[in-house]
């Protein structure tokens, strides 16, 4: 008789990096008794994989180990049986932000009385567990008529949140922090600080890094800053893991 099997695991399996994962595949039919093998959809099994019959164990899993794993049963009678599960390893990475209007664009101005939008984006796995929090000078922010917090449609721009400051006032100067976290926990949060304040003295720009703001490039996980005296404002950003 042709082989049949079942997996004693969930699909998908969402785990934190560093955890040990065990996949169990059992035979439910087939004569003669089928042999069981594990394969990975893309590439070979991780070198650290431990196999014991139909049981596969991955110790200290990393993002590189994520993917679809399949158990195949074959007894050379009929077609082989195959069951699969997808392993998802939680991750937060590649934080970036941009400001509208762009303070480094010749035709854009940040002015008192105008709207300023701070956008924050990160790559999250799994994306549905991503949550954002906004803070001003360390205190939690909630949406109001003048400060509107939105999270963009994930189908359009996944992993993005916006803080719209309507009718910018001097009292709005301060440090705004966007914190990205995963509901499942086990992953360090990513925090992006943007400091908006009145500028005194000359512009103090580090190298050519002003392009980071205008082109919305990915920022490294390290602290640095940008300042400008354009329109009397300075802007400083800092990206770090909490």
UniProtKB/TrEMBL annotation:
<dbReference type="InterPro" id="IPR003598">
    <property type="entry name" value="Ig_sub2"/>
</dbReference>
<dbReference type="InterPro" id="IPR003599">
    <property type="entry name" value="Ig_sub"/>
</dbReference>
<feature type="domain" description="Ig-like">
    <location>
        <begin position="101"/>
        <end position="197"/>
    </location>
</feature>
<feature type="domain" description="Ig-like">
    <location>
        <begin position="3"/>
        <end position="89"/>
    </location>
</feature>
<dbReference type="Pfam" id="PF13927">
    <property type="entry name" value="Ig_3"/>
</dbReference>
<dbReference type="InterPro" id="IPR013098">
    <property type="entry name" value="Ig_I-set"/>
</dbReference>
<dbReference type="InterPro" id="IPR036179">
    <property type="entry name" value="Ig-like_dom_sf"/>
</dbReference>
<dbReference type="InterPro" id="IPR007110">
    <property type="entry name" value="Ig-like_dom"/>
</dbReference>
<dbReference type="InterPro" id="IPR050958">
    <property type="entry name" value="Cell_Adh-Cytoskel_Orgn"/>
</dbReference>
<protein>
    <submittedName>
        <fullName>MAM domain containing glycosylphosphatidylinositol anchor 2</fullName>
    </submittedName>
</protein>
<dbReference type="InterPro" id="IPR013783">
    <property type="entry name" value="Ig-like_fold"/>
</dbReference>
<dbReference type="Pfam" id="PF07679">
    <property type="entry name" value="I-set"/>
</dbReference>
């Amino acid at each position: 008789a042709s082989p049949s099997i079942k997996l004693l695991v969930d699909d998908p399996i969402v785990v934190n990096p560093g955890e040990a994962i065990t996949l169990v595949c059992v035979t439910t039919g087939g004569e003669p008794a089928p042999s069981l093998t594990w394969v990975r959809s893309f590439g070979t099994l991780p070198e650290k994989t431990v196999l014991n019959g139909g049981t596969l164990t991955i110790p200290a899993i990393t993002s590189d180990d994520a993917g679809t794993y399949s158990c195949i049963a074959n007894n050379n009678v009929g077609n082989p049986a195959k069951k699969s599960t997808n392993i998802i390893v939680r991750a937060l990475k590649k934080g970036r932000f941009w400001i509208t209007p762009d303070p480094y664009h010749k035709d854009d101005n940040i002015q008192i009385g105008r709207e300023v939008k701070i956008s924050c984006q990160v790559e999250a796995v799994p994306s549905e567990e991503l949550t954002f929090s906004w803070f001003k000078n360390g205190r939690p922010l909630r949406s109001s008529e003048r400060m509107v917090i939105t999270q963009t449609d994930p189908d359009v721009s996944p992993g993005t949140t916006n803080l719209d400051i309507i009718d910018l006032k001097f009292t709005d100067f301060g440090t705004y922090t966007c914190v990205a976290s995963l509901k499942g926990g086990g992953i360090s949060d990513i925090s992006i600080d943007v400091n908006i304040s009145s500028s005194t003295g000359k512009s103090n720009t580090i190298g050519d890094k002003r392009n980071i703001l205008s082109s919305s490039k990915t920022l490294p996980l390290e602290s640095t800053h940008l300042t400008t005296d354009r329109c009397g404002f300075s802007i400083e950003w800092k990206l770090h893991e909490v």
